[in-house]
Fold this sequence. Notes:
mainly beta
Amino acid sequence: xxxxxxTGAVRSENGFSSISKNSTTGAVTTNSTYGTNAVVxxxxxxxxxxNSDWNTSSAxxxxxxxxxxxxxxxxxxxANNVINLPALSTDNVGVHYEFQLTVAxxxxxxxxxxxxxSAVSDFQAMISLVAGxxxxxxxxxxxDTLTLVNSTVANARVSMVCASDDGTNSKWVTTVLSTPIATxx
Length: 185
């Protein structure tokens, strides 16, 4: 059968299969099936998006979008940076970001992560000091601004995922590894 193009939705009550046929033996091999539980075989290629918008010595105050979920953001801490999380929306649940500090936060600057809506959203943060000291994690579950304080060393890491967002308030589960220790307020 040749290639068929449809302009409307294609529907099946029993799923779909992608097959290949051996040209010599005629044997049919199922490569992928799509049904209630999709099964995909073969090689799946994909890359994490890496964003360098904050990886400049100039200050940047910008807002992330849900479409940027899964992105690794590189941050130059030389200037005051403000990273605003997306506006409140039920579509944010599951959105996740990672951040890496490529240049230390300056002695008189900070890099802040701000949740939308003053005092209606919280970081649920597990914050660790990475100065070689064991058992130093801090838990902070009340505050809408997470700050990498002045003199935070290069290679500090922040990861966060939106655990709940009802369109009115949100909770972001966050892990921070930094020296000195980050703050939530």
